[in-house]
Give the backbone structure.
Amino acid sequence: MQAPQVDYAALVVFATNTLVIVLGWIVVHLLSARRDREKVRGEMLVKSADNICLQMSELLLLARSYHTTDRSVEAEQRIKMTIQDAAQSVVGLRAIAKSQENVKKCLKAVREVRESITGMHFEDEHVGPVADNDQVLERMASAVMRAKLCLTNLKHGQFA
């Protein structure tokens, strides 16, 4: 009985096709995993930026109420904690944001919000309510608006 003849050309074609299929599957898997991570990262950043914007709105309401009423140490503490939470949330965006420069701008904007709220007529300087058209309130509103705009730009920059 004769040993069967091996068709080396067919074997090489089969091995090559198998190798191409396996390598193609690996490449597709790696690219798909990277796309999924990018999608989750972007979603996390958008959600975080939206939450910080909400914190900024709440902070503006708290600060406005604080400045237009008699001094409240409890309100001061709540304002300080909200500012600190917002700043920490922005710092946390460094790990997931594509543009570190935009994160720095947002952090600077949050600092400006803090300064506008606590720079004048806060704690020991709070001797009584301010008028509804006082500069302190206008500066706070402007600073909060700039911070929210910065966060929106950061959020939208993820999809450029």
